[in-house]
Amino acid sequence: MYRYVGRRLLQSLVVLAGLSVLLFTLLVYTPGDPVELLVNALPDVQPEDVARLRRYYGLDDPVYVRYFKWLRSVAHGDLGYSRTYAQPVTRLIRQRLGNTLQLLSAAFVIAFSVGVAVGIYSALHQYSPLDYAATLLSFVGLAMPVFWQGILFILVFAVWLPIFPAGGMLTPGVAEGWPALADRLRHLVLPTVVLASAGMASWVRYSRSSMLEVVRQDYVRTARAKGLPERIVTRKHALRNALIPIITLFALSLPAVLDGAVVTETIFSWPGMGLLLFQAVLGHDHAVAMAVLLFLAVATILANLVADVAYALVDPRIRYE
Amino acid sequence: MARNAVTLAPVAPAAPAQAGEGYWRIAWRRLRKHHLAMGGLMVIVVLIAAAVFAPWIAPYRFEQIDLLNRFARPFQAGHLLGTDDLGHDVLTRLLYAGRVSLLVGFAAAFSAVALGTLVGVVAGFYGGIIDNILMRLTDIVLTLPVFGVLLLLGRYFGGGLIAIIVIIGLFGWTVTSRLVRGEILKLKHLDYSDAARALGASETRIIFRHLLPNAMAPIIVAATLDVGGAILTEAALSYFGVGIQPPTPSWGNMLQNAQSYLWTSPWLAFWPGMMIFLTVLCFNFFGDGLRDALDPRLKI
């Protein structure tokens, strides 16, 4: 077990190192470094000042020197300085992280619980009308562009039937305490549903096929053959084994979920990291964009590591591969 | 996006293969029975035809503006689906946008799958350190929040058709590379590869004559599903203003434009989104049917 965890840890470190190189390359080769942007904003800057600034920021150093300098500052928790917000990036991320986690966890709970329940039911009643409906709906969910669904929801539930706010996170002037909480929840509904529906579709498909695979296994037949009631067979023998592979989907689907969060937050102006990323990209705020991308990627690596270890814990066969 | 085996229709017990009937014929026979896949294929064919013949079908020219009839409602002033803020005919622009979206979808999926196949074959065939390096590279790209990276790349290098195709292709090869690698690992120790090697066949001959043709099933399925994925990505990038730039119409940038007039002209937001949805849905139906017909055990 320790060997397995150690090997996975090492792999994650390699991926992390590669990732940092990739992101740094992206940062270096996208046009518009800080000095260039400054010069564009102040047309009467003298060339010698430009040269001095470039030297000061180390922009003329060889790329690998810049990479290691950058790596050192990141390792010290310094993610740079946002030019549009005039704040350290770490502070920006800290402000936004909570909002994103709220949206993500709300969407995850709905997508996971409904998706897995429907998927399992579908598998147990294969080819029933409900199975067809669920499978068809999961196709719809996977093909639906998140941004279009967002627009339609705003149109229907905020414009035509003004039940929910079209965006943002709070209504100005709402009293503190319970009214503020209710207001926050009202703002949370539409983005959560939009973000959850895409995820739900893949949970349905994944849990359905996982369950279908398990009910064909010999040990399920054995359980039935020895006369166990069907309820026990499905709950204890089939369901518990079918849920194991689902652990991996949690980590595997995280990048897609985060992509969805970027889109959802932008459409509903939910002030989270996704919106921050979008605005940073549009506003040439390289430091912020890079930091958010790195943050999301590191979160994904960690999730994968945790999922793999968890999988090895519940399914010992994995450890000896 | 995690895709995996779901069979919608009960897989008909494969009819006994007639003597001399090849793999592809059998697959085609199975595919024909898959109603959703065939339905998807038919819609795709219609969409492609509409895109190819857009200049002949479209009632107007795509850049033609009708300033007297801006924001025309559907069926108003000779515009079947209405007009946008500049008086462009929506139907005409939908048809032309379909050209762009389908072209990007096919080209990006093709480059992604070609790249993925290359990586997968090299990793699976040569193994060892090469395999290790390529698979870690795959892991790296898989952990990236790809859409964020594409936003960034689209912002600085996007705008043009080629750039968007390259950007999407460059980050979409991971699924294929893993699939193909797995397939090659399985195939390269089968007797016929050993036999070919024993007979002194060169590496390229083994790869191109013996391994790749037998690994076609996952490649084809991945490619089909990737077309839908690429269309979705292009639409999202264009919707956020970093993909295809107006005046070239794409479903994504039509939707972006429509959003500004959501309160006053909501119908503008309907059709572009519907076209994206329908196209992606049909590619997914078709890809799913292909998987069931070619190799139902594939985990895509």
Structure description:
- The complex is a heterodimer of chains A (321) and B (300).
- Chain A is mainly α.
- Chain A is built from 13 helices and 2 strands; from the N terminus they run H-H-H-H-E-E-H-H-H-H-H-H-H-H-H.
- Chain A has 2 domains: 2-87, no CATH class; 89-314, MetI-like (MetI-like fold), CATH 1.10.3720.10.
- The radius of gyration of chain A is 24 Å and the shape is globular.
- The mean pLDDT of chain A is 86.
- Chain B has helices spanning 23-32, 35-52, 54-57, 90-126, 128-143, 146-157, 161-170, 174-187, 191-198, 203-211, 216-239, 251-259, 270-294.
- Chain B is mainly alpha-helical and 300 residues long.
- Chain B contains 13 helices and no strands.
- The longest helix of chain B has 37 residues, at 90-126.
- Chains A and B meet through helix 1, helix 6, helix 7, helix 8 and helix 11 of A and helix 5, helix 6, helix 11, helix 12 and helix 13 of B.
Tell me the strand percentage band of chain B. Answer: under 5%
First-last Cα distance of chain A: 11 Å
Number of domains of chain B: 1
User: What is the overall silhouette of chain B?
Assistant: elongated
The count of strands of chain B amounts to 0
